[in-house]
Amino acid sequence: MGIKFASGGFLTTVQDMGRTGYQESGMSVSGVMDQRSAAIANILVGNDENEAVLEVTLMGPMMEFTEDNIIAVTGGNLVPKVNGKDLPMYQAVLVHKGDSMNFAGMTSGSRAYIAVAGGLDIPVQMGSKSTNLKLKVGGYQGRKIGGGDEIGFAAPKTTLPNMRKRKVTPEDFSQTEKTIRVVMGPQDDCFTEKGVETFLSSTYAFTNESDRMGCRLEGEVIEHKNGGDIITDGIAFGAIQVPSHGQPIIMMADHQTTGGYTKIAGVISVDLPLVAQSRPGYKVHFQKVTVEEAQKLYIEQVEKLKALKEELAKVPEPCGELDAVIQVAVGCESKRYWNPIGTYRVVIDGTEYMVELEEETERFR
């Protein structure tokens, strides 16, 4: 099977990178709120970055693994534990049938991501496994996960190449005051010069009215020229609407497809995780950047993720009879082992296996 849930926590859903191609019909893209954390979790367990993960919000679920598999937890630190012991974050870890997992509470950020090797056994609907809570489409029966629910593993694994290297430095989401970079527009000309200056120089706080659809902020009033209403047009992930009351709203993964409020700016892609990992009371400043700067930062992030994926997928090449291969002669008494710690190919009756040597051993026959 895979995972059996004793409780679903505050809000645990199945999400991938979103259901694209249907906004013209009024269907939100949905998908993970923090795309970078989800992508890293998938890469660590050998999945494609778009594979579905469990998105855990604020208070984590209690669950039991009913089959062995490799998992990774990234994003906000909600203190994941397996069998009562801290689980290292941003690292691939093998869990076993019967192991229990829970989360002790938030220490930084607000959302954690759990990826499992081989992916979750969730049906693809309109090109995605993501949960659209409003339309009750996708994910686990179109809803959040609760006690008694079970989700299977699609293709579980107990070993991966370079298992010991499958860890990265955790991201720091502990800062309660952040600078978020934005590209101005498309309706920044609907605001007075003073309004734009207020937006870029003031401090805004996340309010309790923040969820997967959007985050309402509170702070200095942003002045319009002629009110905040416009002819309805499209909305993108990260768009910052400013209705007539002058308080900004950052549109998130479950945002509506169109809206009739002025949009003063949009959060750049690489900074969206900072918004997704914020909680009520966190403060934010906005910094203007150009489209070219935003694109450069995005390309750098894509290249880093690609490099991590390629590095972890490398298989050590044999460099001699014993130098990089453990050879086992099955059916006879001769066995030879090479000493250094690392990942090796094991050849048994002509079949190759990957073996992780965790301790140095002596050669013997």
UniProtKB/TrEMBL annotation:
<feature type="domain" description="Carboxyltransferase">
    <location>
        <begin position="24"/>
        <end position="305"/>
    </location>
</feature>
<dbReference type="GO" id="GO:0016787">
    <property type="term" value="F:hydrolase activity"/>
</dbReference>
<dbReference type="InterPro" id="IPR052708">
    <property type="entry name" value="PxpC"/>
</dbReference>
<protein>
    <submittedName>
        <fullName>KipI antagonist</fullName>
    </submittedName>
</protein>
<dbReference type="InterPro" id="IPR003778">
    <property type="entry name" value="CT_A_B"/>
</dbReference>
<dbReference type="GO" id="GO:0005524">
    <property type="term" value="F:ATP binding"/>
</dbReference>
<dbReference type="Pfam" id="PF02626">
    <property type="entry name" value="CT_A_B"/>
</dbReference>
<keyword id="KW-0378">Hydrolase</keyword>
<keyword id="KW-0547">Nucleotide-binding</keyword>
<dbReference type="InterPro" id="IPR029000">
    <property type="entry name" value="Cyclophilin-like_dom_sf"/>
</dbReference>
<keyword id="KW-0067">ATP-binding</keyword>
